[in-house]
Amino acid sequence: MVARHGGEPRETFRRVLREKGPIDLKTHASKKHEGEIMTIAKSPVVTMSPTTPVYDAIKIMVNEGFRRMPLVDPGTKKLRGTVTASDIINYLGGGEKFQIIQKKYAGNFFKAINEPIKSLMTPRALSMSTTAKISDAIDIMRKHNVGGLPVVDERGHVWAIVTEKDIITLFSGKIREAKVANLMSRNLITASSEVSIREAEKIMIKRGFRRLPIISNSEFIGMATVRSILRFFGSGEVFKHLQSGTINQVLQTSVLEVTMKNVATIEPDADIGKAAKTMQEKNVGSLPVVKDGKLVGIITERDFFKLIIG
Questions:
Q1: Least CB-packed of 46, 113, 224, 230 within 10 Å?
Q2: Whether the Cβ atoms of residue 306 and residue 299 lie closer than 8 Å to each other
Q3: What's the pTM?
Q4: The domain spanning residue 233 has which CATH number?
Q5: Which residues constitute the domain of residue 268?
Q6: How many folded domains does the chain comprise?
Q7: Which residues contact 194 (CB under 8 A, 6 or more apart)?
Q8: Tell me: the pLDDT tens digits for 133-159?
C-alpha cells in the first residue's frame, strides 16, 4: 500500500499551510531543560524489560493500545532496543523470526510464547534527546522511515515517546482543502476472507503493512491489522484452536477471526480534513476509502505524515 500522491494537491495543501502561518507551540507547557519535542511527546512512557516473555509483551501492547514499545534495562533504565507489533507478528508466523519457534521449540506454541522479547527487538534503536526540536524528530522519521522514536535524556533513560501521530496532531486543524481521492493509496493489496491468519501475516510482513483489507465476493468486509492479530494471540480465544499445542494449527485459523468489521470508512470525494478528524475521533491509523460498497483506496496516518513533511 504505497501512497501515490498527486503533485498538484500536495502543493495546494502546503500552500494552505504556509498561508495559515506556523504552528503555535506555546500552548504546550515545556519544562526546564526540555526541548520542543517534549511539548508533544507522550510521557510517562510504558516500557518493558528485555527479558519479558513474548506472551506478556503481547498482553501489555494490547492492553495499552501500543504498536511499539521501548525495552529498557531493569536496573539502569537505559534504552536497550524497541519492539513493534510487526516484530511479534513476524515471530508468530509472518516472517523469518518464525524460525525461532520452528527450530528452538519444534513448533510448540506454549513454550514459544515464553521466549524473551529481546529475541525479537531491534537493538541500538533509533532515539532522540529530550532537548531536541520537533523538526529533528521529523527528519529522523523521514530519513529512516519509522513511525515513532523513544525520547531519552543524556544518560540514555527513556522519558517519552513521539510518533508520527503526534506530529500530525499539530497540523490536524490545518489539514483540509483536498479530496481524499487525491491522497489515498490506490494500488491496494487485499486478501480473501478464505485465507488463513498465517497467509495474512506473511503478506503484511513481506509488504511492510500494518493492516490488510479483507474482501469477500468483491465486497469489503473489514480490516485485519497487527493489533487485531496480537489481540487474538493474547486472548483465550487462541487456545480454542489448539489441539496438540502446535502453533501451525493456530495459524491455519481463518483470517476472519482477526478481521475487524464495521470499521469506519470514508468516501473518495470527502475532504481530507474530515478524514483526519474521523481518524482522531475513532483513534485509528487508517480509513478504508469505499464507494458503493467497493474498496477503492485507503488513507493512513503515514499518508498525512508524508504530506506534511514534504
A1: 46
A2: no
A3: 0.84
A4: 3.10.580.10
A5: 174-309
A6: 2
A7: 254
A8: 999 999 999 999 899 999 999 999 999
